[in-house]
Design a protein that fits this description.
Layout (H helix, E strand, L loop, with lengths): L18 H13 L6 E4 L15 H9 L1 H13 L2 E4 L5 H5 L1 H8 L3 E3 L7
Parallel strand pairs: 1-2, 2-3
Helix pairs in contact: 1-3
């Protein structure tokens, strides 16, 4: 389980210090023979931190900025389930079904519901 990566955003927020570690984790999960999965417990992407684009254009920017991450999500998700539970900064994920569909293209299951009450 991982959380609070806040990947993406404008200017200095584009620099994700943990990206190499995240890619290594995804690669390791892809190669594992164990019954494994990954739960991202909120705030994986910094959608709320974008100020120059709106709506699902933010997803386009994420894909363009982090192509290695999205390709690794797709590859890992073919072997193990990846579930993204929205966090307190993920309002857009639960408000727009297109995000759910776009993440599904990369084998990431977004659960568009409150996970904590």
């Amino acid at each position: 389980m991982i959380s609070d990566l806040h990947i993406g955003g404008d200017e200095q927020l584009e620099d994700v210090g943990v990206l190499d570690k995240l890619l290594a984790l995804l690669e390791r999960l892809e190669r594992t023979s164990e019954d494994a999965g990954l739960i991202v417990n909120g705030d994986a992407f910094g959608l709320w931190e974008f100020t120059t684009v709106d709506g699902t254009e933010k997803f386009d920017v994420l894909e363009e900025t982090y192509p290695a991450l999205f390709e690794q999500l797709r590859a890992t998700g073919e072997s193990v389930p990846i579930t993204l539970l929205p966090g307190d900064h993920d309002r857009e994920l639960v408000a727009d079904e297109e995000y759910v569909e776009r993440f599904a293209e990369y084998n990431v299951n977004v659960v568009p519901a409150k996970s904590i009450e």
